[in-house]
C-alpha cells in the first residue's frame, strides 16, 4: 500500500493516510475471539470495549461496558469463558454495567492486525455472531491484508458495508443487528404510525424480549440515527 507524504508547506514530515481510503463494517466470528463464548450464552447483552492496558507480569486487562437486561446470564458466562479470567464488576448504572477482565492466552484479538495493515478502528461492538468492527483502511489492499490475517487465525470475516472513507453521502449508520431488527419490525408493524398499530409490549412479545429491553433498544437506535443524520 502507498502512503503519501504530507505537503511540505505543512512544515512537518508527517505522512498521511487521511485522504481517500475505504470505510468497512465487518462482522468477525471465531469460538475464541475475546468474550465470544459469553456473548453466545447471553445474546440479550450488548458489549462495547472501553480500553485495555498492560498490567505487568504478561497480563492484559480489558475494560468493557455491557448493556441489556440479562446481566446475570452474562456474568455466569464470564465465569466459564476460556478467553477471560478474574472478571470484576467495577461500575454499574440502571441498564449498564462495566467490567474488568484479564485476557487469557486463548483469547484472539484483532485490533493489532488492523493497526499493522494501516487500519484505524473507529467502533467495535458485540453482535449475535461475534464482533462488529468499523475500520477505516488506507486502501482496499489494506482491507485484503486484514482479511488475510484474520483467515490465517481461522477467524470468519463478513463484509457488511463498504464505502469510500471520505464520502459524505450514503454514510451507513452503525446500528447493531438487534437494533436493526427491532426498527424493521417496528416500522413494518406500524409502531411509528399515527395512531400506532403495535405497542412496545407487543413488540416485546413478537421479538421474545422484555419490554424494558425494547424501550432501551429503541431509544439507543433512534439516538444513533438522529446523531448520524444531524451531525
TrEMBL record:
PANTHER family per UniProt: DIMETHYL SULFOXIDE REDUCTASE TRANSCRIPTIONAL ACTIVATOR
InterPro entries given in the database record: BAT_GAF/HTH-assoc, Cro/C1-type_HTH, HTH_bacterioopsin, RNA_pol_sigma_r3/r4-like, WH-like_DNA-bd_sf
Endpoints of the signal sequence: none
Record flagged with keyword Transcription: yes
Record's keyword annotation contains DNA-binding: no
Residues covered by the HTH cro/C1-type domain: 196-216
Protein name: Bacterio-opsin activator HTH domain-containing protein
Keyword annotations: Transcription, Transcription regulation
Amino acid at each position: 500500500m502507498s502512503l503519501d507524504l504530507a505537503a511540505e508547506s505543512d512544515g512537518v514530515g508527517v505522512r498521511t493516510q487521511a485522504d481517500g481510503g475505504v470505510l468497512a463494517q465487518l462482522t468477525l466470528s471465531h469460538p475464541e475471539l475475546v468474550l465470544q463464548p459469553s456473548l453466545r450464552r447471553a445474546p440479550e447483552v450488548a458489549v462495547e470495549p472501553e480500553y485495555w492496558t498492560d498490567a505487568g507480569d504478561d497480563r492484559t486487562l480489558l475494560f468493557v461496558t455491557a448493556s441489556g437486561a440479562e446481566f446475570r446470564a452474562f456474568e455466569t458466562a464470564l465465569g466459564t469463558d476460556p478467553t477471560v479470567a478474574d472478571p470484576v464488576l467495577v461500575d454499574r448504572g440502571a441498564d449498564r454495567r462495566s467490567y474488568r477482565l484479564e485476557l487469557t492466552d486463548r483469547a484472539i484479538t484483532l485490533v493489532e492486525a488492523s493497526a499493522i495493515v494501516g487500519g484505524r478502528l473507529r467502533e467495535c461492538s458485540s453482535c449475535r455472531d461475534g464482533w462488529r468492527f468499523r475500520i477505516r483502511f488506507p486502501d482496499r489492499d489494506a482491507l485484503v491484508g486484514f482479511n488475510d490475517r484474520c483467515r490465517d487465525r481461522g477467524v470468519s470475516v463478513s463484509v457488511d458495508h463498504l464505502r469510500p472513507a471520505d464520502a459524505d453521502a450514503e454514510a451507513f449508520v452503525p446500528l447493531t443487528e438487534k437494533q436493526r431488527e427491532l426498527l424493521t419490525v417496528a416500522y413494518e408493524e406500524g409502531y411509528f404510525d399515527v395512531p400506532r398499530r403495535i405497542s412496545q409490549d407487543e413488540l416485546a412479545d413478537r421479538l421474545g424480549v422484555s419490554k424494558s429491553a425494547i424501550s432501551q433498544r429503541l431509544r439507543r437506535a433512534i439516538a444513533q440515527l438522529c446523531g448520524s443524520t444531524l451531525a
